[in-house]
Predict the structure.
Amino acid sequence: MKYIEEFQDPELARRLLDDIHATVTRPWALMEVCGGQTHTIIRHGIDQLLPEQIELIHGPGCPVCVTPLEVIDKALEIASRPEVIFCSFGDMLRVPGSGRDLFRVRSEGGDVRVVYSPLDALRIARQNPDREVVFFGIGFETTAPPNAMTVYQAKKLGIPNFSLLVSHVRVPPAIEAIMTSPSCRVQGFLAAGHVCSVMGMGEYPELAARHRVPIVVTGFEPLDILEGVRRAVLQLERGEHTVDNAYARAVRPEGNPAALAMLEDVFEVTDRAWRGIGVIPRSGWRLSARYRDFDAEHRFSVTDIATLEPAECRSGEVLQGLIKPHECEAFGTTCTPRNPLGATMVSSEGACAAYYLYRRLDIAAARKPETGTAAETAPETAPLEASPVV
Ligand code: SF4
């Protein structure tokens, strides 16, 4: 197959579904790690087309969602300073900190700018040598290499007024944390193909063997998800637990050597807090000692931040797959994309946003019939094409 439409082909999807239905003999719980995969599943109704014995649990792989509140509050404090130009991808601007977000900082006079690449922030730093330019570097293994390269360039070019506020996280330690949690129900993983295209698959065989859990690396189109489910279920039914690459068109076992070398040079592994989950050992990156001068936390001495999570937000349970978004009391009522209480409702990869956008409102509607008619409670930005692939 060559073109993206071919990975949405209804006839091929039907065949994969038939295969899965014919294979399953008992209940299995699979976790899709990445928020992009969650959106594909909900948008195309894939979970509803699978045999009822298969449950898809939504994992913590949304970079915006897992960025800890403390880091958001540090971003807000730095962005409020008059000497600072604070640069970020657009989806971070609406993520609520303790009481406000970056949009609010901008409305209060802060110089907050949306950029499309960390290199844009570096260009802004060169154009404004009398200002401090900070880029908000968050995300998984996919966004870490360009951020590392930007810091490398800043050092090489001698741009002293550029710094990075870093909150990068890594997938394998999160899988380890999920599998060792007493409440874990996950029996197989659909691993994120784009992460493996950078990092390779080297860390997964040991995890699969130790936890006796199949890990299938897969992509983001409907057929990718169905093929990932098919391969995971096949392993589970056979009692196998190996790493399987179902995304060979993008993933090589060794990953991307140039990106890995850049990560190795600029970052070092550290413990990292995940929003709603807590600290996971060795689950993140920070700038290594050689690049400490470009670390915004170090440069602006933002410490002793007191954070305040909304008590009603259950995004931690959503991110761990313990509840579905519409089981949260606030879902679709006090928490909507327009007025989000938690990052999982803001982010384009958040599970709460996926359930809201693609009309998985039924539990909230049944629980709160007095909140209005269907028209009154309709999503603010629901896409029209939200229909199953077959
Ligand atoms: S629906 Fe809103 S309040 Fe509930 S878990 Fe999701 S983000 Fe938090």
Notes: Residues 312-315, 318, 325, 328, 330-331, 335, 340-342, 344-345, 352 surround iron/sulfur cluster (CB under 6 Å).
